[in-house]
Design brief:
The chain is of the alpha/beta class. It is 40% helix and 26% strand. The protein is built from ten helices and 13 strands. Helix 2 crosses helix 3 and helix 6 (118-132) packs across helix 8 (140-163). The longest helix has 24 residues, at 140-163. The two termini are 42 Å apart.
Length: 329
């Protein structure tokens, strides 16, 4: 298993980038806030402890949070690793994490930090307050307190992981979301050349597990990389799509795309350059159609009726779609 930590101040875009990293590298994204809410909703023993403390107006101690994290390590088996977001926050937690992983014969592989200036934090949080109506992001004093807390807690951790030779930075102001994402992927490629290197049996159990990962994802879909190394510049993956997921009309200019439906029902829809539908291929169910080869440069999208798990292959390395590769209807 691989264990990665994601750092970044408020407004750096950790949540947005964590989803993309987790999907591409088959990592389980662990957000401590989401973990607490999930354990409480599930009524687990740790969740009950956390709920009683929160209702009493007390902080949840490290031992409870760390127990939830270790629980996730123990239960999530069919992933390549974990991406920790919001933990560790202190040197004490960092040392506890090292001990936890050491007992498993594992270690923190790398720490990736999205860096933005204090002025950018203020402007992004103020903008977020306008968009989302979040009062805590609109108060300058609250924002400054969050910035001060971030520096006080995180800077010692940065030094700690630098001394371990595990710390990497990405400029969170190098461009738009896609530019930052590309920079993060470049860092990931440099961190771990033999990222996957494993044998995989594609069976009902694997499909079930990847489907559960998609159900846990806000995007309602999940990729599972089948390559053996980041040096493999092709694409071979499982892709789970649930009803409600949004797949933009797009094209691939470097390679055709082969799709094989392994479970469920879906439509592959082709469009012309004006966004007008020109062909719809029903797949799965009683159609007798289970795959399609999509030519290079063909505008297309996928529409999911119930659930769709596909095997997808291309002859080029994965990269985020650019504006030129997406079509607005």
């Amino acid at each position: 298993m691989k264990y990665y930590i994601l750092f970044g101040p408020p407004g750096a875009g950790k949540g947005t980038q964590a989803g993309a990293i987790s999907e591409k590298y088959n990592l389980k994204h662990i957000s401590t806030g989401e973990l607490l809410r999930a354990e409480i909703a599930a009524g687990s023993e740790l969740g009950k402890q956390a709920k009683s403390l929160i209702e009493a107006g007390k902080l949840v101690p490290d031992s409870v949070v760390e127990g939830m994290i270790e629980n996730t390590f123990n239960t999530e088996k069919n992933v390549a690793g974990f991406l920790l977001d919001g933990f560790p926050r202190t040197l004490g937690q960092a040392n506890d994490l090292d001990k936890m992983l050491e007992s498993r014969g594992e270690k923190v592989n790398a720490v990736l930090s999205i860096m933005i200036s204090d002025e950018t934090i203020k402007s992004r949080l103020a903008h977020r307050a306008q968009i989302e109506g979040r009062a805590d992001d609109a108060n300058p004093t609250t924002i400054q307190n969050r910035i001060d807390t971030y520096h006080k807690q995180t800077e010692p951790l940065i030094e700690f992981y630098k001394n371990c030779g595990k710390y990497y930075e990405v400029d969170g102001e190098c461009g738009d979301i896609e530019d930052v994402r590309k920079a993060m992927f470049n860092v990931f490629r440099g961190m771990d050349k033999k990222f996957l290197d494993r044998q995989v049996v594609i069976d009902e159990d694997l499909l079930d597990k990847v489907q559960r990962m998609a159900q846990d994802s806000p995007r309602l879909r999940m990729n599972y990389d089948l390559r053996n190394s980041e040096e493999d510049q092709s694409q071979r993956m499982l892709n789970v799509m649930l009803p409600g997921t949004k797949t933009t009309i797009h094209k691939h200019n470097l390679s055709s795309e082969t799709i094989m439906l392994l479970r469920g029902k879906m439509d592959t829809v082709f469009y012309n350059e004006n966004g007008v539908e020109k062909e719809r291929i029903h797949m799965g169910g009683d159609t007798g159609v289970f795959g399609v080869n999509i030519p290079k440069g063909q505008w297309h999208t996928f529409e999911v009726e119930e659930l769709a798990i596909i095997f997808m292959a291309q002859d080029c390395a994965w990269s985020p779609l650019t504006k030129e590769d997406m079509l607005s209807k």
